[in-house]
Specification:
Layout (H helix, E strand, L loop, with lengths): L1 E15 L6 E15 L6 E9 L5 E9 L4 E12 L14 E16 L6 E17 L8 E14 L4 E18 L9 H9 L11 H9 L6 E18 L6 E16 L7 E9 L1
Parallel strand pairs: 9-10
Antiparallel strand pairs: 1-2, 2-3, 3-4, 4-5, 5-6, 6-7, 7-8, 8-9, 10-11, 11-12
Length: 280
């Protein structure tokens, strides 16, 4: 057993050439404190980790880890992680380009592999996405902007297959819809290109009988989810239609929507309210 292990002002430089465009990341400073580290059965240690991914972009974790069997619980806080910096890994598989998004996470977790199957619970956790910008490609102006999305507080239980979100709040959506003179919606053009390049999938009927029967006889536990309140605030849609000889411009502003009681049971009646202003 080690009574204490510390890493102060560490640096990790990462270069990944596997995406179409090489990814470079530098993590600094890295500060790690480990007390009572042990690989003995039933022995836990208390640890702290702080990693900076640039000014104001931090990951902080504190909690405990046990090695035999592996289990961990603790508190995780992520501040202003630039998700778009990692978009190169998804770029070839997603039709749109994430121009900008800052991710924040704050909450508690408990993970264990002590039983027959892994268990994971996430509790009192809030996820935030700020300054979201989505474009059809890397050069054109973004067609979608969202000032902020707040998800939570939320609770998740892997064993029970249950997700409970208290609130989902989306603030200041700005959507630009442009219809070309040929009648094509420009925001849908990336989807058609993805369909053309999509690989041919194997027909399920061509699978071996034993594999097909196994899949049909396996029934996954139904996933349960609930969103207590969905709120969309102060949003706007601008439509430009270039089909007429004189292009038409339509603006719908001050869009506000509230929906309560969303869940996997879509047969339930929902409380719903919406307001907007259609501008001339």
């Amino acid at each position: 057993m080690f009574d204490q292990i510390e890493l102060i002002d560490g640096v990790i430089s990462i270069v990944d050439n596997s995406p179409s465009e090489p990814m470079e990341q530098e993590l600094k400073p890295i500060n790690l404190s480990m007390k009572h580290f042990s690989t003995s059965v039933g022995k836990d240690g208390d640890y702290k980790l702080n990693v900076a991914l640039g000014s104001g972009h931090n990951l902080t974790w504190r909690g405990n880890i046990g090695i035999a069997p592996f289990h961990s619980s603790g508190f995780l806080e992520v501040e202003n992680i630039r998700v778009h910096r990692f978009w190169g890994y998804a770029d070839e598989h997603v039709p749109y380009t994430l121009v900008n998004t800052l991710l924040g996470v704050e909450g508690q977790y408990d993970f264990s592999m002590a039983g027959e199957s892994p268990t994971l619970t996430i509790s009192n956790t809030t996820v935030t996405l700020d300054d979201i910008k989505l474009g059809t490609n890397k050069t054109d102006d973004p067609f979608l902007g969202i000032n902020n999305i707040t998800i939570g507080p939320l609770d998740f239980d892997l064993t029970k297959q249950k997700l409970d979100i208290n609130r989902l709040i989306i603030n200041e959506i700005a959507l630009n819809v442009n219809r070309s003179a040929e009648g094509e919606l420009l925001i849908l053009s990336p989807l058609s290109k993805m369909d053309e390049n999509a690989p041919v999938t194997t027909d399920k009927n061509t699978l071996p009988a034993s594999q097909s029967n196994t899949e049909s006889n396996t029934k996954a536990k139904p996933f349960q989810w609930r969103v207590g309140e969905l709120s969309i605030n102060n949003s706007r849609i601008d439509v430009t239609d270039n089909v007429p000889a004189m292009p038409a411009n339509i603006a719908i502003s001050d869009i506000n929507t509230q929906i309560s009681g969303l869940s996997q049971d879509l047969s339930k009646k929902l409380d719903f309210a919406v307001s907007y202003i259609l501008q001339d």
